[in-house]
Design goal:
The complex is a heterodimer of chains A (430) and B (137). Chain A has 430 residues and is mostly helical. Chain A contains 20 helices and no strands. The radius of gyration of chain A is 26 Å and the shape is elongated. Classes of the chains: A mainly alpha (430), B alpha+beta (137).
């Protein structure tokens, strides 16, 4: 490419190519590099070569093929330089040459179809031998094409911490002899779940981080969503892949409405719905439709997306189809039981069938340790009691809830609600 | 950040509809954008002969039906993509096969399409008083 904007821009252009291509290049080099660390090193060598050559030669018409070819040659050169007399090395070399012949042919015939390679890379980055943090970091680095500095910035960590984690993760994968295989059919679902779990972790990290500053660019949310969309094109017949994409599209649609100017979170019920992103809602609904059309029903992500869709398509809290929301929470509680799901179900049931029905759902799980110290559980209970006219009980719940949260704004809100309930007590009791 | 990639075909209305070969190339490109997870939406537009221009001024509104003759200014369609930087948006525009002109004509030297990229304004790009006016502060 001739860039009329000069040399500095040439480097930036190459970095942009790298961002677009790096995951596919690393994935393709994984075929010959053996493990993830080796593949990344080869890809990095190819990037260095590009930075040296492209400013004068221009960006080649297929940067992907160029980078893979250079990386592969580096690999072969490396083996040639080492003792070829070593029979194991000689075997590797022969394999590499065979692979090269084959892959060159494949790349040239279908240069844009390295989908399986990309999947292998996703599975390796999200391998169960790694800790969740390691999976997140490797995914951002190798699949997202983010630099160590960019990851550190997005996750509020030290660059050295991130760098060390990457080194250790690659070492763990090498030690466990984890290469670039596609999992066996029996294992596939569990491995896909691991990838989905990592993407949702990244997404949520971004979702929470945005509350730090009202206008932070949600890098992590965007990257998780983008990788989800990539995965949805590779694994078209797994309903939960589409379910997670739908969930992330729908949650993203509210990103700009969920923070107030002072940086505090705005509850769903209080959000200005005219600020929701209609395009992302439409995309979320389409992804949900794809999840349903797989024909195996909806999994936990799909059900959460379906709930999010009820909110996304309702004009107001009152106009929400709460009967459907309650039924979806019911189904979610079946496939992924958790006290927090029950808490949400209690709210939905109370909106659909009245506070008494909601209270019955809540009281059934009230003793659960996850809820007994959770201020939101108390706050919801206070709300239900208030709606039932049990103002004295409501006041106690709100006051206890206020004690449990460290967030000053929440405390203030809950004390105000406690006082509100107290004011509605009959005069002789106050 | 979101970028709008505007396609300016730089052709006359009568040549507007692309041939199957061009459509196949563009479909491949659209798939590439989809597989990379960056494409949010896209549309192609009818020629300007089916459009109109609406101008105000002096308290009056004037409607002028198409076609409009300045081919270099007429938008033929757009892609809306979500990427990390302007450079990445440029990289995607660079890959659009249409900007090289018809592939079937060797050494083609005629007018070629132009892609103009424009960043989508987010509320966060506005100064505080604008955000307040929009009811966002």
């Amino acid at each position: 490419m001739e860039d009329a904007r000069g040399a500095e821009n040439a480097v930036r252009s190459i970095e942009a190519v790298w961002r677009v291509e790096s995951a596919r290049v690393i994935a393709a080099l994984g075929r010959i590099g053996g493990d993830l660390g080796a593949a990344e090193d080869l890809a990095h060598d190819a990037l260095v070569a590009a930075l040296e050559q492209w400013p004068t030669t221009g960006i080649p018409s297929s940067p992907f093929s160029w980078l893979v070819t250079v990386g592969r040659r580096r690999f072969i050169d490396g083996i040639r330089r080492s003792a070829v007399a070593d029979s194991r090395q000689a075997l590797l070399l022969r394999q590499a040459e065979v692979t090269e012949a084959r892959t060159v042919e494949e790349f040239e015939s279908s240069a844009m179809e390295p989908g399986d390679d990309l999947l292998r890379l996703m599975f390796a980055c999200c391998h169960p031998v790694l800790s969740n943090e390691a999976r997140v970091t490797l995914t951002l680095k190798l699949l997202g094409g983010l630099s160590t500095a960019q990851i550190a910035h997005a996750t509020f960590e030290l660059e050295s911490t991130v760098a060390q984690r990457i080194v250790r993760a690659k070492r763990s994968l090498a030690a466990a002899e984890i290469g670039f295989e596609l999992p066996a059919t029996a294992e596939l679902r569990a491995r896909v779940d691991s990838v989905l779990g990592v993407l949702y972790l990244i997404f949520n990290e971004g979702y929470v981080a945005t509350s730090g500053s009202a206008w932070t660019e949600p890098t992590l949310c965007r990257e998780a969503l983008r990788l989800g969309r990539v995965l949805a094109e590779l694994l078209t017949d797994i309903e939960e892949v589409h379910g997670l994409v739908a969930l992330m599209e729908l949650q993203s649609s509210r990103l700009r409405a969920r923070i107030d100017p002072s940086g505090d979170a705005v509850l769903l019920a209080d959000q200005d719905r005219s600020h929701w992103d209609r395009l992302l809602i439409r995309r979320g609904l389409a992804a949900l439709e794809r999840a349903s059309s797989v024909g195996r029903g909806l999994g936990p992500y799909g059900l959460q997306a379906a709930i999010a869709a009820c909110h996304a398509t309702a004009l107001s809290v009152e106009a929400t189809d709460w009967v459907r929301v309650a039924a979806l929470y019911d189904a979610l509680g079946e496939v992924a039981p958790s006290p927090v799901v029950e808490l949400n179900r209690a709210v939905a049931v109370s909106m659909a069938y009245g506070p008494e029905a909601g209270l019955a759902v809540l009281d059934a799980v009230a003793g659960h340790p996850a809820l007994s110290n959770y201020y939101l559980a108390l706050s919801v209970r206070g709300d239900l009691l208030e709606r039932l006219g049990r103002f004295a009980d409501a006041e106690i719940e709100f006051r206890n809830a206020a004690e449990m949260t460290k967030n000053e704004r929440e405390q203030l809100l809950l004390r105000r609600r406690a006082n509100g309930a107290a004011k509605r007590l009959p005069r002789e009791r106050s | 950040m979101r970028f709008m990639l505007f396609m300016i075909p730089n052709i006359e209305d009568k040549d507007w509809m692309p041939d199957p070969e061009a459509v196949a190339a563009m479909t491949g490109y659209n798939e590439e954008l989809t597989k990379a997870g960056v494409l949010l939406s896209l549309d192609g537009l009818h020629p300007s002969s089916k459009g109109a221009r609406i101008t105000g001024g002096g308290g009056k509104v004037t409607v002028t039906d198409g076609p409009f003759t300045e081919a270099k200014e007429i938008i033929g369609g757009y892609w809306l993509i979500d990427v990390a930087s302007k450079d990445e948006a440029i990289e995607w525009a660079r890959r659009c096969p249409a900007i090289q002109g018809p592939a079937s004509i060797p050494d083609y030297n005629g007018p070629v399409p132009v892609i103009e990229i424009r960043q989508v304004l987010e509320m966060s790009d506005f100064p505080e008083e604008v955000r307040r006016a929009a009811g966002r502060d």
